[in-house]
Design a protein that fits this description.
By secondary structure, the protein is mainly α. It contains 15 helices and no strands.
């Protein structure tokens, strides 16, 4: 099967684990500082990887257009949306903010259809219905008011959708490692400018070992995320890739259940609908191929 599907499926698993852990991290660290330091740690790892694999030479041969697109990926995906998202979440309901973020696959499909000429078939609309329904169930209850915070979360989500569309275009010519490095480098740079301008860098003085530990743990997951995501996105339609990412939600729910956090039947039903939606979009053959690949991976490791 196309290795892109397998890599993006791994991204979804990493995302589910990372979201579960990040809930603890952001509870003890300023979210802007938390995001910037994670990006910085991943940037160090990616830079080391580029040097080790001699990919660094590729940067010297990039055209002005390629540099412009890589900077755009860092600005549109690695910095601005994080600032908008966390600001929005501080003003509104976190569950509803999370739901808005999970609608990103819709905007990606729209952008990919017009700018990348990706075909959207009937299966996508059926799967999209199941995905929206599943994520609505995760909300527990729907209460929406016209708060500015919701607009900020939506804007952040649309920025991420635009970044994924741009990244898919850039990946036609560049490797996933180069795109991932650019996102982290320019993303960290623009967030640093924001922290400097808002006088928040002084918060670094009060860091303790517990906070450092959470940054290191989540940075490892973020490194795995960007490596598998951009590696897989190069080979499959971005509209399908963002749908597969939603598999992370059932993973987070399962971890919450295992570690004793309150999970009700509605959560498991939501997870089932999300998985059903992913299968509907990908098709049974592609899904069975993913399962086979995962079984093979588990067999090799044991």
């Amino acid at each position: 099967m196309n290795k892109g599907y397998f890599l993006v499926f791994l991204t979804a698993i990493i995302s589910g684990l990372s979201i579960f852990l990040s809930k603890f991290g952001v509870s003890v660290i300023n979210p802007y500082i938390f995001t910037w330091l994670k990006n910085l740690m991943v940037l160090v790892l990616l830079t080391g990887l580029l040097l080790a694999l001699k990919d660094w030479q590729i940067l010297k041969s990039l055209t002005k257009k390629q540099w412009f697109l890589l900077i755009a990926i860092g600005l549109v995906g690695g910095s601005i949306p994080f600032l908008l998202f966390f600001k929005g979440l501080s003003m509104v309901s976190a569950p509803l903010g999370s739901f808005i973020h999970k609608t990103m696959f819709i905007y990606v499909a729209f952008l990919a259809f017009f700018f990348l000429k990706e075909k959207i078939d009937k299966r996508f609309f059926l799967g999209g219905f199941f995905l929206i329904l599943g994520n609505l169930l995760l909300l527990k209850k729907l209460s929406f008011t016209l708060e500015p915070g919701y607009f900020l979360v939506f804007l952040a989500t649309f920025f991420w959708a635009a970044e994924n569309t741009i990244s898919k275009y850039v990946l036609k010519e560049l490797s996933g490692r180069i795109v991932a490095w650019a996102r982290m480098f320019f993303g960290a740079f623009f967030i640093f400018i924001f922290l400097l301008g808002t006088d928040q860098l002084s918060l670094l003085v009060d860091f303790n070992l517990i906070q450092v530990r959470w940054i290191l743990i989540t940075a490892v997951f973020l490194f795995g995320y960007v490596m598998t995501w951009y590696g897989g996105l190069r080979y499959i339609p971005v509209s399908q890739a963002t749908v597969i990412l939603l598999f992370g939600a059932p993973i987070t729910t399962l971890l919450s259940f295992i570690f004793g956090r309150e999970v009700i039947l509605q959560d498991f039903l939501a997870g089932f609908l999300i998985i059903l939606g992913i299968i509907s979009v990908l098709g049974l053959k592609q899904t069975l191929g993913l399962i086979k690949e995962m079984k093979t991976l588990m067999y090799v490791r044991t």
